[in-house]
Specification:
single chain, about 50% strand
């Protein structure tokens, strides 16, 4: 079955950095766009970044441009999110996600991991 396992979160001071990782299994990782989303306390899910499967093109939410970098290693079935210049408002649970087709190709389902907590505080 599809599994997404995030790691790398923690407590960091403002201006600090972390590398978040997401190990994927149960599907053809290299064939699908991978996504990072986050959820701050008391708020809904917020899209952060995507990386395409076929050309590794990346996309970012405006609030993280220039600070976060998404990348993928298809040999390791892993997607990364390097988070730099962190701000207190970046405090959230960060999830990786993927949208996959059903076996008969008639529908799509979204999958998310359990998330990794990032807390930015002095």
């Amino acid at each position: 079955q599809v599994q997404l396992v995030e790691s790398g979160g923690g407590l960091v001071q403002p201006g600090g950095s972390l590398r978040l990782s997401c190990a994927a299994s149960g599907f053809s990782f290299s064939a699908y766009t991978m996504t990072w989303v986050r959820q701050a306390p008391g708020k809904g899910l917020e899209w952060v970044s995507n990386i395409n499967s076929h050309d590794n093109r990346t996309y970012y939410a405006d609030f993280v441009k220039g600070r976060f970098t998404i990348s993928r290693d298809n040999a390791k079935n892993t997607v990364y999110l390097d988070v730099n210049s962190l701000k207190p408002e970046d405090t959230a649970v960060y999830y990786c996600a993927v949208r996959l087709p059903s076996v008969d190709g008639t529908a799509w389902s979204d999958y998310r991991g359990q998330g990794t907590q990032v807390t930015v505080s002095s």
